[in-house]
Structure formats: C-alpha cells, structure tokens
Amino acid sequence: MQRQYAQELEDEEKYFQIDHEVMYKKGDPGTVEGIVRDHSTVGYFVTLPNKREGFLACSQLGCSGGIPLLKRLYKVGDEITVRAEIVGDGGRDRLYTRKDS
C-alpha cells in the first residue's frame, strides 16, 4: 500500500499540470498579486502587497504537494494571483487561487 502511494506521488510530481481555467487571473475582482516567498511540503508562503504574509495550500492548486512538485510549479520570487482572507492580527492570511473556492 505504501509503495503504491509513493508511486502515485512520484507520478504526480512528474505529470501534474495546473488547470489555469479555474484559477484567478491578474485583474480579477477581489484579487491581488503576491510574491512566492518560500515553499513547504503542503504549500507556499506568499508576501502580499500590504506586506502581510499568506499561506497558499497545495490543495488550492489541485495537488497533494511535496517540495519537488511545488518547486516545479512556482519558484521563489514568482508572482501569483490570489484572493486573500485575513486571519486575525498576527496570523497568516488564507490564500485562494481557484475561482470555485
């Protein structure tokens, strides 16, 4: 079972492509342009124009995550269009990239 899961993750890492049809595009109402600051195994840390930091979960991209896959999709310094949901004063904002979120 674990071997099958490992193979599925490896296949996803090689072949996964973002479905740009369901993603926010630059200029969509309620969105901002953030800059990818760092990766984790389950998403991206993104700096927003207001200097707040947000977290974009890999599930928003439709994938399981993993550093190799996430580094292939977006690199540190890349600009990404997101909708931000503010979470308190000190926490990271939740970020969304899919129009259906």
Automatic annotation (TrEMBL):
Query: Which GO molecular function terms does the record list?
Result: nucleic acid binding
InterPro entries on file: NA-bd_OB-fold, S1_domain
S1 motif domain segment(s): 29-99
State the superkingdom: Eukaryota
What PROSITE patterns is this protein classified in? S1 (PS50126)
Name listed for the protein in its UniProt record? S1 motif domain-containing protein
